Each structure stands twice: as structure tokens, then as C-alpha cells.
Amino acid sequence: MQLTHIDLGKLSIAAxxxxxxxxxxxxxxxxxxxxxxxxxxxxLVRPNGEPDHFEIVAGRRRYFAASAIADERxxxxxxxxxxxxxxxxxxxxxxxLIENVARLDPDEVSQWETFARLIKEGRSVAEIxxxxxxxxxxxxxxxxxxxxxxKIRDAYRKDEIDAETVRHLTLxxxxxxxxxxxxxxxxxxxxxxxxxxxxxxxxxQSISTKVALFPVEDYPDQxxxxxxxxxxxxxxxxxxxxxxxxxxxxxxxxLFEAGWPEVVILEPGEHFQSWExxxxxxxxxxxxxxxxxxxxxxEIHEGWLTRKDARRARSKDDLDTDATPPKTARPEVTSALxxxxxxxxxxxxxxxxxxxxxxxxxxxxxxxxxxxxxxxVKPEPQETRxxxxxxSVAASASEAAFxxxxxxxxxxxxxxxxEGTVAGGNGDDYGTAGVFARLLALGDEDVLRILAVVMxxxxxxxxxxxxxxxxxxxxxxxxxxxxxxxxxDLIRDRQVINAMVVDVAGKAAADGNVAEKVKTQKQxxxxxxxxxxxxxxxxxxxxxxxxxxxxxxxxxxxxRTAEQWVRVRSxxxx
Length: 574
Fold this sequence. Notes:
The protein is α/β, with parallel strands linked by helices and 574 residues long. It has 5 domains: 101 residues, Conserved hypothetical protein from pyrococcus furiosus pfu- 392566-001, ParB domain (Alpha-Beta Complex); 55 residues, no CATH class; 80 residues, no CATH class; 127 residues, no CATH class; 88 residues, no CATH class. 48% of the residues lie in helices and 9% in strands. It is built from 24 helices and 12 strands. The strands form 3 sheets. It has a 5-stranded mixed sheet, sandwiched between helices. Helix 13 packs antiparallel against helix 18. The longest helix is centred in the middle third of the chain and has 21 residues. The mean pLDDT is 84.
């Protein structure tokens, strides 16, 4: 049996249900309870063969009551369901569910108190759900009551407000809850409820000046006040968000300067769930979480860790800290993005080697002395399972330039210009003798051209040698590479993309969009490169990852390119 929540539209009455085919039942006795509190006892369902559809084995009256409420309100939350598995006995499962739910206090606020105490004792949401025979979502909904002000919880306990209203209030900030309570307590005003409360919380673009992190006098546009001058609003919401994001970025920087190890800016509208975290001081690795509501409110939660991270931290305290390896930092780039970087840099360096034949003999001698993974001899395979990366490298200017040099060398050796590579033969001595004879007939310049191409083919992608050669030749990647869709699609890190916005649009623009999604900040970079949407065009921009020498965007490590350069940097710089 699996407990989950299922949308009403994906449920239907099963033919095996003993009441199947009869007219809709009278649900007037349970309708008030379900209207106020929702469905508590899960419906017993099983897959009916259609994709994502289930038939109800037990719980027909609960289903019809929920349908009636959906007709009243226009919507209803998914229903708790127990999905039967082959071999399950329906009667036994239903009896178990009813018995378990009967152990719950019918008062949701009392349930919240019970669940919160169990969470504090170390029980997980899944364990609590299993204990009481309810879904994990229902446990999370009850725990969300902890976000409410005590007066709202008391009103709910006294049935002065309904479940739908409370559900929406759990999404409200403390300031919004206080504002709603003031309306609720004033008989001359109307406190919105149900779906009207949802519109009140999230609808419209009016943003109060009370939520601004920045000095209101710094706002350059009009501010609209009410007749009494008590409440005022920003006329231009977009301009407000620019100023607010700049202030959030400044606050983030100040928190880093204050010694906090990490500052997490949540997605707009994402709430910080304190019950999923534990208070943890800065010296124990506590983080700062910044929550930004759709109405512009900013809440800063200092000194928290997720429960999982907090348990890990306590485990480390119990051990000898000197013998415990530090937690591995999240790498700056994904493995796919690292492959993209390696292959493009490799393609550019070997194309540059082909333009500087005097470098190739020295590389060849180095390989002969030290050996390498490729000194069989065999060409660099340029392998990747990512089709977008393969297509990007194949279409690059560097790859085209090298292919031209390779065809010329194949013709010098008397081979077909359509051969895949110069190096990488089977090593039979007759063939080697034939190539040797051909080389004897060529001048030194032609031999060096052949050697340069062979060296380019056998240069290992992602190696420290690629970095050293690129720096030595002062290679400018902007002449052969431009950011393409594959590059942008592989970037996932919000801190990195914000640093790139600094590169192309400046720190003010980056700070003004610090809380925006990665997709939005990528578009800013694209607009700057194209000179579109009012952005000043930036020509020949190179991200730090593509520069010689390479430049990382964070201190987290994990950029193999930078690590390779660090290993040999002292040999090529004063």
C-alpha cells in the first residue's frame, strides 16, 4: 500500500464497489466536516489501466462530498488516497486506515502540536505519516500551521475560519498575517477568505513602501499614497524590483563579510520552512536563508541548517575533527559542462599548435620522455555522450581550421583526404616504412606541418598540457569561439550566472537581478551579446572558463580546468 494525494479528476468509482451504479449518495452528514477540515481518512484506490487514473474501491461518499465542494468553489485540493497493491485485502486495509486515523486528535491545531513535537524528537515526516495512516502531504500541511500567528491558529481551532482560508494563510508572510488579523478583528472591515484570500495575497502589482530594503527616498519614480497618507505604494513595480534586488545583493555581500559561510537566496515566492531546519550557530556551519515573497517582502533567517546537514554536523562533532575529512564542496560545474569546456579548449589549442609548427617538436619530445595516456600513438577521441556538446565542438571554427590542416597533411603523405586521422594506424612495419620513405622525400617545413597535426591529434583534452600550451601561445578564444545554446543550456548554478552578468552588464545590473531565476539572468547575457532589449552590445565576451589562463567564478573548487592550470602555473609565470 502506498499513501499519496490524487487529483479529483483522476478518480472514478470502481465496478467492484458495492454501491457502483447507484445514484449519488446523501452526503449531507459528512459535507460540513469535509468542507471545513477536508478529507482525513484516505480513499482506498487501485490503478484502472488508464495512465495516471485510479478507481475507488472504498470511500465513495467521501469522493462525492469532495466533488460537491469542488463544484461550490471551482477547485479542491487533491484527495488523500491509499493505492492498493496486488494481493492487498481491501477490507483489512480500510479497517487499518480508519483505526489509525481514529488515533489522531480531530483538532488540526492539536495535530500540529503533536507532529511538531515528534519532529523535534527526530521523527521524519514519512515516519509520522506511517504511524497515523495518513499521507506525508497531510503531515506537511499540519506542520505548515506552525507558520501561522497564534491568534490565527486559535481562530481556526474555534471554527471561526475554515480550512481553505487557513491553507492560504500558511503561505502568507508574518506581515500579511498581521494585516489580515487586523481586518478580521475589525467588524467594519471584511477579511478576505477562501479563494478571495488567495487573490488578496498574490493578485495585483501594488507593492507597499513598507517592504523596501532600500531607502524609499532613493526610489526615482512616483510613490502613490492613500488619502490619509498612512499607506503608500510604488507606482512602477519593475523599478521597485530592480532596487529591491540591488538591496538584497548588498545584504548578501554584508552577510558574507560578517563571516557567514553560505547565504542562500530562495526562489521568489518560496517559503522558508523552519520545521525542516534546525537552528545552528555560525561557528557550527549555520547558513543564512533569504526568502523573497511575490509582494516584495524579504525575510532573513540567520543560523539554520537542514535537519540532514545538522545531523551530519553533530556526527562530526562526536568524532575526532582532525581525522574527519571536510565536507566536499559542491563543484562549480557539472561533468557535462566540464566536458564542454575541455573539448572546446582542446580544439582551440591544437588548432593554434598547427599555426605554430615550431612548438610541435618540443611537445613531441616531451611526450617521448614522459609518456602519456595517448602515447600509443592514438588520437584524442573527443568523446561525449551529450549530443549537444558533440555538435557544438564539430561546428566550431577551431575544429574547421584543424580539419583543413589535416586534409593538407594527408595529401602530403599520399593518403586520401577523407581519412579520419593522420595518427592512429595499426602499427604494421611495412606501413611505417612507407611513411618513413615519404617523409624522407619531404622538406623540413612539410615534416613540421605533419608533426604539428599529429601532435594536435594526440593532445589529451582536459590535460594540464592544453592549459600550458594555450597560455604560452597567448591564445585568444574569442577569435574562434562564441557562447552557443549548448553552453548556456549546461549552466545551472545561480551564483555563477550572476557573476557572468557582472562580466557583460556590470555589477549594478547583476545586483539588480540577483534573486531572479537562472533562465532570466541567462537572457540578460544573451541580450548584452546581441545588443537587444535595450542592452549595450558587448563584443567578443569570453567567460572566465574559456580564457587563457582560466578564471573560476567561485571559491568552491571543482573546476578541473583551473586545477590543471594551478599544477603547472609556476612553470610558465614569473
